[in-house]
Amino acid sequence: MEGVHFNHFVEQPQKTDREKSEMLSPHSRNEETESVILELEAAESSLKEVLDRGLMEHGCPHYRRRCCIRSPCCDEIFGCHHCHYEAKNNISVDPKQSHDIPRQKVEQVICLLCGTEQEVRQNCTNCGVCMGKYFCEACKLYDDDTSKKQYHCDGCGICRIGGHENFFHCYKCGCCYSILLKNSHPCVEGAMHHDCPICFEYLFESRNDVTVLPCGHTIHQKCLEEMREHYQYACPLCSKSVCDMSKVWEKFDVEIAATPMPEPYQNKMVQILCNDCGKKSEVQYHVVAQKCPDCKSYNTRQTRG
């Protein structure tokens, strides 16, 4: 058998996918890559179409969302926790039946597109739609309108709006304030954990803008504006001035100087308490107002005399 060669009978090893790919021309490889990219983009587009079905078309008066909640306290269905509050905690409800919803204990939601009731989650288990572009599992909050810049504050324990970068949490006041007030606001313990002194809405969970007065008390911005429209410039809780009143006090000086008291009252002295600085003093009585000798404010009250 000398001189006979058998190499052409030997079985050649199979090439791997990687080796086959390397054997393809650059043009073929580019076509294959583009094909894969197109398939991924099509799949992503299809998924987005499913998730965004009904976006901004559903919800309640308080939120644009694609689900409603089953209340754990009364086992009824509501658009959101605010809807529950309006239905179960207003003045027309029997006080024995009135109650708040423990929002963190909500366990079931109902998809508004397919009607499937399910455990709290962002995407529907049945039709796959996203029930809220913003979703907070802690608060059980859904909202499609992300222009509000929602964020969850661990200190408050609830979601806020306006962007996390624009607010800070004051642990003494127990609430979030604008970053502009970080080093200037007067701290009042539990400042937001009470009702607005004008409209009596609970400020901590209010969806309306809240402002901090110079005294540290809080109030709805809209309510403060209404106070000013009616020439009310004192805090409804402590009576301190809510803004710089120095120009007004100058007008009081002019008016008092132009209005001398009758002779029997010219030497009458009275005791006053200044609402702005808290000082007590004895001053000459005048029918227009009494001026605090310490801070020069006319925001005073007569205590004796």
How are the secondary structure elements laid out?
Layout: H1 17-23, H2 26-51, E1 67-70, E2 77-78, H3 81-88, E3 108-111, E4 117-119, E5 134-136, E6 141-143, E7 151-153, E8 158-160, E9 167-170, E10 175-178, E11 210-212, E12 218-220, H4 221-229, H5 246-257, E13 269-274, E14 280-284, E15 300-304
Antiparallel strand pairs: 1-2, 1-3, 3-4, 5-6, 7-8, 9-10, 11-12, 13-14, 13-15
Give your account of this protein's structure:
The structure is a single chain. The protein is an alpha+beta fold and 305 residues long. Helix content is 20%, strand content 18%. Among the domains are: 57-147, no CATH class; 258-302, Single Sheet (Rubrerythrin, domain 2). It contains 5 helices and 15 strands. The longest helix has 26 residues, at 26-51.
Task: Offer a few descriptive terms.
15 strands; alpha+beta
Offer a quick outline of the entry:
By secondary structure, the protein is an alpha+beta fold. 20% of the residues lie in helices and 18% in strands. The strands form 6 sheets. It has a 4-stranded antiparallel sheet.
